[in-house]
Amino acid sequence: MKKRQAVLKIGTRASPLAMAQAHEARDRLMAAHGLEEHSFQIVPITTTGDTIQDRPLSEAGGKGLFTRELEDALYDGRIDIAVHSSKDMPTELPPGLVLPVFLPREDVRDSFISLSALSIMDLPQGVKFGSSSLRRQALIRRMRPDIDVVMFRGNVQSRLRKLEDGVVSGTMLALAGLRRLKMEHIATAIMPLDSFLPAPGQGAISIEHRENDEKVMRLLAPIHDEETGQALACERAFLGALDGSCRTPIAGHAVIEGERLRFRGLIITPDGTICHEIGAEGRAEEAAAIGLKAGADVREKAGTQFFEGWF
Ligand SMILES: NCc1[nH]cc(CCC(=O)O)c1CC(=O)O
């Protein structure tokens, strides 16, 4: 019997969250086209970012660490699409690749996880808080200058073990990731958007493919979510206007309401002492321009000295 060929090869990182996201993309493709599971082949690929566990990713080479191996696989045809967490995607893509498709966004908020405190304000004086995110570290330091913020990486299981072992008293994870792993129950509290702005792209799954790949574009068209795409265009333009290197703690969140887009963003020094916020509003169609201008505005507000002398 002739072996049936997959219609589309879906590349993903091999981590549990990445696999869950790839399955979500596949489920949406199956539903949109009335195709069976075997039409889509999920191809897990281990990336450099997955193997570095001992230092901040910003030190080890930044966001490209999670994407390079997937992009090589796109170039040589081992995969047709790469499913990513938008948050992990650099603002600039390698030549010949595009990131035009976004699935409907999950909850964008951060969750606080602790076995001993109900909220960040409730943590005892001077305890340790673990996070690898420069944004979360800085925002925590702003709220609680007394707390000892330490570098903290690893998957959900290893983080929980460190909480149990008392290595840290609290940590934070994106609620979206926990939901996708069916682990929302481990969240102790959900951080409010007004005091704890998420990372640009948080909670959104994006799909990268080869430019002008007509077959892929046809298959992906029905699973793209327009509102998420507009919000992400704004947030990624804000990020791009500020920093490609991911060494600046940056937060940004856009919401679409009909034809309108509302955006809030901030930059903050790693020690949490200086924070510049920006709000912007406009037509959703002009999402990228709004984000770009907000980035330029907040950069001007902060002044050049803000970006100097951290390292
Ligand atoms: N950098 C790791 C990463 N990339 C995306 C998510 C969460 C899921 C999402 O934001 O879509 C996470 C983990 C976390 O921040 O908790």
TrEMBL record:
It holds the Pfam family Porphobil_deamC. GO terms for molecular function: hydroxymethylbilane synthase activity. Signal peptide: none annotated. InterPro entries: HemC (IPR000860), Porphobilin_deaminase_cofac_BS (IPR022419), Porphobilin_deaminase_N (IPR022417), Porphobilinogen_deaminase_C (IPR022418), Porphobilinogen_deaminase_C_sf (IPR036803). Residues 233-297 form the Porphobilinogen deaminase C-terminal domain. Binds 1 dipyrromethane group covalently. Its EC number is 2.5.1.61. Gene3D superfamilies: Periplasmic binding protein-like II, Porphobilinogen deaminase, C-terminal domain. It catalyses: 4 porphobilinogen + H2O = hydroxymethylbilane + 4 NH4(+). Pathway: Porphyrin-containing compound metabolism; protoporphyrin-IX biosynthesis; coproporphyrinogen-III from 5-aminolevulinate: step 2/4. Its cofactor is dipyrromethane. The modification S-(dipyrrolylmethanemethyl)cysteine is found at residue 246. Residues 8-217 form the Porphobilinogen deaminase N-terminal domain. Belongs to the HMBS family. Tetrapolymerization of the monopyrrole PBG into the hydroxymethylbilane pre-uroporphyrinogen in several discrete steps. The porphobilinogen subunits are added to the dipyrromethane group. Monomer. This is Porphobilinogen deaminase. The gene is hemC.
